[in-house]
Structure formats: structure tokens, C-alpha cells
Specification:
This is DAO-domain-containing protein. This protein has 449 residues and is an alpha+beta fold. It has ten helices and 22 strands. Strand 1 and strand 2 form a beta hairpin.
Amino acid sequence: MSADYLLAMWDLKCLWTNEVKEKEALKLEPALCRDIGIIVSADYLLEIWDLKCLWTNESAVYRSWENVKFNACYYSIIGAGVIGSCTAYYQSQNDNVEITVIEKTQVACASSGKAGGFLWSEGDGDFSRASFRLHRELAQSLNGKERYGYRAMTTYSVTVSNTAQNNGTNDTVPPWLYQEKVVYCDELGTQKDTAQVHPKLFTQTILDEAIATGKTKVKIGHGVTELIYSSQDPTLVTGVLLDDGTTIDGDRVIICMGPWSGQFALGNKALSSAVHYLPVNATRAHSIVLKVDDDAPIGAHALFTEIKDNDGKMQHPEIYPRPNGTVYICGEQDVSEPLPKSADQVKMDPAAIDTLCHLAKEFSLHLDASQDHLVTQQACYLPNSRDQNPLIGKHPAYKHLYISTGHSVWGILLGPISGLIMTDLLLNTSTNRVPQSCLTVLSSSVRFK
């Protein structure tokens, strides 16, 4: 199918519908006619074929897919965290795509593997509600209960004193807490609107499903050092350069690097403009995972808490029991340690871990942070945009470059809807899962500068 033919069909469409548009508008997404280097949508090609049939009285039988050949579109996704993995998953559900996920360290090696995995339909408005529904659908279709610990939860806001304050007969308090220390307890969410997953298992499962389609491959062990640009157009991204000197071509490149998105230099050396970076910064968060006894009566209760530490400072640990007999506890965020170059270089603050271990035993007899029960102590960095909303969309300065980052504490929750929205952008389709007003805010070009 020649470029002249496509442009002739565009002229025909304009003539038939009395539309006046520039021929550049022909370059829609995402099916790639590689032989001519023009991006057009399959639906658009069929639309103009129908117009040609009307205009020339040719039989529409030639509209069959056997007579319109489409080559695969190649996508390079930088980052194998939950955002990159969900993007690969939803992309892989389509035809004529080939996806490469590039990861410097390991799958879910950063916050995607060290988060609490808490899901709340009201966490971030319409965006969260849409993704919460997707999580529920994925759990049903992928056996999430068994594969990655998906389950509904009841969520509470709890204030605890370091000493007994009552007679311990509050029926609204989860029974595995020290009843006599609870001075306030309120239900924040029910099993209809709060749930959980094991974040690392969820991320790995969703990526495995993408790989199983035969359309996705994962390259682990080498990071992306820079983008590759077209020699004909210095603002057109055509692939990536890895730290071992190899290149990977891509019709579209999607940056899903979490907090490292803000450290990745954008800018073609062939241009006189200075290198710039995405407006994403990082905050560090610590967490511990405790093993509880098999007979511990800990239920599916997520807790957002408030308690004073030994220094009299108010702390707000979050507590998430998991169905595998462990309890995840995370604490305050800090910016005292700069973001390292890679996820395997993240440093913990021993004092932060000690604080979590001390506070754990103040909540329940069953939260024992001794060495025999302390399964994991860890830290990770969260990606934050300036306005605390994710950055999702086309980059305004570079063609074929897409961004999905800045999800802060809601990365696991928002992974599915972020992957679906990015797929819609790449395929020029719409699932109508999120109100357009929300999408406009997320992809506003001024937010990428």
C-alpha cells in the first residue's frame, strides 16, 4: 500500500465529507505500514476503503483483512515494575504488536515489590475506582486469590495509646489488637471497596501473562542509557541505547521507570536545546514483614494508625495482614537519602526499621518483631509528581515517546488502569473506563515540563 495511495484516499475522504484537513492528519496511530513509514489506524484505513468503494462503485469485498496487510508495531517499555508490566499486559492483548520490556535489575525490584499492595476504590477518585474494578476483574480471570493473594479487606482508622485507656470491650475494634489501648476506631472501607494483593506476585503474574501471549519479551540486566532519535527528525524517538552498547528499535518508547524517570535525561544531542528531565522526585519509605503464628486470629483488616513513639512523636504506621500468614507494616517517608542509580543500591535507615519493630508490639500480642518473626526489613523509593497525580501520556516535545510514572503511594492500585490508558493512547482507541476530564488532567502537556 503506497503513500500516494493513502494520501489520495485522504483527499477522497475530504472531498466526500467536505472536510478540510491537512494531509499530515493522516498520520494516526498505531498500526505501522513499515514500508512507507506512515502511522495509520486500522479503522481509518477501512473507513477510507469504504469511501473509495462508494466513490468508485467497487465491491467492498476487498475490505477483507486478507487484502490489507499490517505489519507489527514494536513497543519498548523501560521498566518492569507494576506500571511497565501492566502496560505490557494490556498491549499484549492486541494483534500486530511486539513488546520488549527492558529492566536494569529485576522484575518488581523497587516499590512494586516492596509496597503494601493495598487497594482502595476511593484512593484517587475516578482513576482509583476504575482501577479497583480492573483489579477485581483480573483477580477473577487470573485466579488472583491463589496466584498473588488477592482478597477483599475491611479497613479501619485506629488510634492507639501506649498505655491502657479502657476496659477492652469495644466491639468495633478488630479482636487481634490490644482492645484496652485503642482510643479511637472507625471503619474507613468495607470489603466492597478495599482489598489487597501481594505486590511482587501481582507484578510478576501480570508480566508472565503478557509473555505467555508470545508478543512480549523481557530483557533484564542492562539499563537504558539514552534514547535514540531519527537522523531525519531530531525530535522523533526511534529506540533506546542500553548500557552494554546495544540498541533496541521501537516504534514507540514508553518510560515506566518510577522514581528513576526523573533522573533519565531527555534531549537529543543533535539539538542545541539543553537536556531536561521529567518533573518526578523520590521519597524513601521503610517497611517490615512479620511472620505470625499459625493460630493467630488476625483477620483481613487493613489498619491506618496513629500512635506516639518513645520520643513522643506521632507516628502513622500502616498495617496489612496478608493471607500467607505474614503482616506488612510500613512507616513514614523521608528524603534524607538521595535516590541511588539503581534499585539494588537502595539503603535502609536502621533507626526507621527499629521504630517499626518497636511500634508493632504496641498494637498486638501477635505482632512480634523479634528476629525469629522478622521476615523482611526493607526500603524503597516512591515516584512523586509536582501535583501528586500520575504523569500519563505522550511527551509534548518528542514524537513517539510516552510517559507513565509519578504514581506515588498508589502504584499498585493504579497499575491496571495506567496500563489500559497507555494502551488506548498507543492504539488510538478508548475504553471509556475513566472520565475524559480526568484523562485531560493526567496528560496535560504542561505537567511534563
